[in-house]
Structure formats: structure tokens, C-alpha cells
Amino acid sequence: MWYSAASHFFYFSYCTHRNLHGGIPVYAAPAKASALIDESQIKEEPLKELAEFAVLQQTPLSSLQKLQYPFSDFPEDYYNVQLKDRELCINQFTGDILAQQDYTTTYQLANFSLRWHTGRSGTIWALIMALASAYILFFIYSGFAITLKRRRGRSKNKFKAKDARIIILVGSENGGTFKFADAIYTQLIKHGEKVFLSDLSNFAAFPNAEHLVIMTSTYGQGDAPSNAKKLADRIQQYSQKQDIQFSIVGFGSRSYRQFCQFAFDVATLLQSTKWAKALMPVFTVNDKSPQDFSDWLTEWTRQTGFNMMMPRKLLEPDTTELKKVSVTSRTVPDEESSFMIRLKSLKLRHAVSGDLLAIYPKNDHRERLYSIGKIGKEMQLSVKLHEHGLGSGFLNNLQQGDQIKVKLVKNQHFRFPKRAKKSSWYPTERVLHPSWE
Ligand SMILES: Cc1cc2nc3c(=O)[nH]c(=O)nc-3n(C[C@H](O)[C@H](O)[C@H](O)COP(=O)(O)O)c2cc1C
Fold first, then answer.
1. What is the 8-class DSSP label of residue 145?
2. Segment 294-322 mean pLDDT
3. Residue 286 belongs to what H/E stretch?
4. Beta strand 86-91 with 323-330: parallel, antiparallel or unpaired?
5. Domain ranges in the chain with CATH number 3.40.50.360
6. N or C: which end of the chain has fewer CB within 10 A?
7. Preceding peptide of 60 cis, ω within 30°
8. Residue 409, beta-bridge partner list
9. Do residues 141 and 147 touch, judged by C-beta distance below 8 A?
10. For ligand 1, is residue 356 a contact (CB within 6 Å)?
11. Over residues 236-246, mean pLDDT
12. Residue among 203, 278, 298, 187 nearest 195 (CA)
């Protein structure tokens, strides 16, 4: 950090110390050494070989920045030597120093900064700079990729936030909740309503809003998904001028102890404001169940009077991101009814330990998530067989060579951070959960 800040400062001062005319840098300071040459003092004897010039013998090559040979045999032409700390003009016949200009500290620092910024100070540094640049490009790309994934299939807002009567705000990590929100948005727009849909973190002033619909998933251990982390601060920042009726739909999974916890937290936040009026209690949707969502929609339309139907596309299983995997081996359930199953897929090579594999035992919305242990190129799942268990029963019926379709769910929350001051691991029923600061 300190290096970056300091070098940017020096680079800035370097830039402000020079003017660019037609691409040729003209340095305001220091003055050129050639301006200090006294031509009446130039001699042509004693004649020396270049290798005999004392000044060159005493100058280590490492301090040399630039050497310019004389243009002609005229005594007025000289060797121009630019070192790290000064510039010299050297008589081409005798090797005498005709003029010398010491660089100011600011100029040297600016020069140093330029070399570091442009990677000119050595091969290793140039390689580090190249790698750093590649990393920056990678982060720009991955940032866009994550945003695009979340936005894929989303409608573009027809109305601005300030004009909309209905505001739909969505909290989502992997885009699933957006599919539900988008289907509602499209229907309302078709019915001529002024609707605005956005991320929960984009909560702002909504001067014409009458209805606020919040649809949000829960992640981590009852936490907000990444596009909803700023919500609490935003609610503090933007107090609405008029009363707004709100309804919250929590998307989650009952296999987590804090089922839809973040949706309930948002309700508490809103209830603490003067302007937000709850239209109905928080509704929850387990495992993206269309039936649960339909229950909310029925109640919301009844309360608001909007003419809405359950969108058909939410009833069909979403097959867009499914990839084929084949079973390479498996064990039989042990005395505790646990077994291991190994899967392989060229398309899921990028999965890492801790990511999740979503399986769809009945080819419908019902999704079961299993934590992946990466072993070589294969993904290993550790499964506890439950009596009548939908996911575990399905996996237990698979044999070596069978193929199934799955979805990879990246689990950023589980990945070990590059820098952690402290980490601890605590066991729950079947897995070790990490936590770090
Ligand atoms: C790593 C991880 C953690 C989760 N934690 C919870 C949780 O604490 N409570 C919950 O109800 N659901 C939890 N879920 C389930 C998601 O909220 C649920 O699958 C939701 O539909 C995902 O919606 P999205 O695709 O819009 O992010 C978790 C899912 C994952 C992958």
C-alpha cells in the first residue's frame, strides 16, 4: 500500500514537472548539461581511446542510464552520458568532463517512479509488473462475469426508480431469486404498472412508490447475500417521505438451521422505520418451491388487487446451467449409513473443495446441495443416507458408469481467504465449518 501511494505521488509529480510537446518530453528542470559547456575550453589533445577515459573507468555500468555518441568529428560534439544522479558531457578526444549537471532529488524520485511504473528497472520487476497487470485484467473480467451471471436473463428497467409505483428489490448470490422477481416484474409491466427492479443494496429514495416487494435469499450462516450487504446502511441513509406498504419473500432451504434468516432480519429493519408498513407477514420459499412462491403471490395479489398469475416458466425446472457428470466409483453405506461417491466431468474441472454440487433427484425444482471434496480431477461427495431421503436415496441408487445432470454452485463463503489473522474450525452434524477473521 505505502509503496503504491508513494510511487503514485512521485509519478504524479514527475508528470507535472514535464510538458509533452508532440510526444517529446521537455523537462522543465533540471537544465541540460550541454547548456553549461564553455566552448572556448574545448581541447583536442591529448588524444585518448574511449577505454582510457578516466570518467568512464570510474563509473559503474549499473549507474548508466543512457549514452549518446558524438554526432560528428567536430570538437563541439561530445559524448552525452546520463547517469542515475547526473548528466555529463565528455570531450570526445580527451575524455575531459566538459559540463556536469546534478539531478535534483525530486527529478531522481520521479525518474525512479517512472522506471518502476513501466517495469524498466530489470527483468524480474518487469515480470512482476506484467503479472500484476494480468491480475488486474483477471479481476476486471471475473467481476464482470459474476455480475453478468447474476444479471443473466434479467429485464432492463423500463421506469426509473423515482417514477415507479412498485419497487422490487432482490437479494441473491447465485441468481435463482432473480428468476422469480423477474417473472413478477414482467407480468406487472405487461399490465401497465410502473415497476422498478434492482439489487437490495441499491435501496434509495423512492418518491412515488406505494409498494415495496423484497425477495431475498440467505447465505453463510443466516447472512445477507453479497448484493444485499449495504441494505442496512442504505435504509438509514434514505428515509422515505411517504408511507410504503412492503412484503418480504425469503428464499432459503430448510436444510440450514437459520432458515431464511436474512429475510426476517430485513423485516425487523423495515419495521424500525416510520414509513414502512407491513402488508403481510414474511413468506418463505423452501428450495425454490413454486408452490411456496405461489402461496405468497396469491396473498399479495389478494391484498394489493393486482391481477397476477403464477408465471408458467417458474413451474418448469431450470436446465440452463446443468452439466453431465459420471460416477467413477462409490462405497456401500457403512454401519452409520454413510457412503462416498466420486464423480467426474470435464466441464466441472474448475470446481474446488468446498463448492457445492446441486442435484435434482426428481428433475423438478427440488434441489439438494452436497459439499464437494476435490480429489485429483474427481469430485467426492460424502453422503449420509436418510430413510426416505430425496437426495441421499437418489445418490445411493447410482452405480459406477451412471450419468446424472448437476449444477455447480460456487461457495465463496467457504473458501479460505488469502489472508486470515485467525481461523477456527468447528464441527456440526457432518462437516467441519471454518470461520476466520
Ligand atoms: C453456501 C450456502 C449457504 C446457505 N445458507 C443458507 C441459510 O443460512 N439459510 C437458508 O435458509 N438458506 C441458505 N442457503 C440456501 C439459499 O438461500 C437458497 O438456495 C436460495 O434459493 C438461493 O438463492 P439465490 O440463487 O438467489 O442466491 C444457503 C445456500 C448456500 C449455497
1. H
2. 88
3. strand 283-286
4. unpaired
5. 152-314
6. N
7. no
8. 356
9. no
10. yes
11. 96
12. 187
Choice among 12-26, 83-97, 376-390 with the minimum mean pLDDT = 12-26
Instruction: Rank 11-20, 127-136, 165-174, 305-314 by mean pLDDT and report only the highest.
Output: 165-174
Is the minimum distance from the CB of 174 to ligand 1 under 6 angstroms? yes
Residues 188, 189, 191, 193, Cα dihedral to 10°: 80
CA of 251 to the centre of ligand 1 (A): 7
Amino acid letter for position 350: H
**Contact of 175 with 152, CB cutoff 8 Å:** yes
pLDDT over 90 (residue 387): no
pTM of the model: 0.61
Sequential DSSP letters for 345-413: -GGGTT--TT-EEEE-TTSSS--EEEE-EEETTEEEEEEEPPTT-HHHHHHHT--TT-EEEEEEE--GG
CATH architecture entry for 323-410: Beta Barrel (2.40)
Q: Identify the CATH homologous superfamily for domain 152-314.
A: Flavodoxin domain (3.40.50.360)
Q: Is the CB of 411 under 6 A from ligand 1?
A: yes
Q: What is the DSSP string of 105-134?
A: HHHHHHHHHHHHHHTTT-HHHHHHHHHHHH
Dihedral-angle region of residue 268 (phi above 0 means left; psi in -120 to 50 means alpha; beta otherwise): alpha
Question: Which pLDDT band, with edges at 50, 70 and 90, does 153 fall under?
Answer: low
Q: Is the CB of 409 under 6 A from ligand 1?
A: yes
For every residue of 287-328, which 3-state class applies, written as one string? CCCHHHHHHHHHHHHHHHCCCCCCCHHHCCCCCCCCEEEEEE
**215 close to 225: Cβ distance less than 8 angstroms:** no
Q: Average pLDDT for residues 121-125, to the nearest whole number?
A: 76
What are the grid coordinates assigned to 361, written together? 433427484
Alpha-carbon span 221 to 313, nearest angstrom: 30
Q: Is the peptide bond before 46 cis (omega within 30 degrees of 0)?
A: yes
Whole-number Å distance, alpha carbon 253 to ligand 1 midpoint, is 6
CATH 2.40.30.10 domain range(s) in the chain: 323-410
Rounded average pLDDT over 140-156: 68
Q: What angle (nearest 5°) sits at the alpha carbon of residue 68, between those of residues 66 and 74?
A: 160
Q: Ligand 1: which atom is nearest the Cα of residue 260? A: 11
Question: Confidence band (pLDDT; 50, 70, 90) for 203?
Answer: very high
Over the stretch 271-291, which tens digit does the pLDDT of each residue have? 999 999 999 999 999 989 999
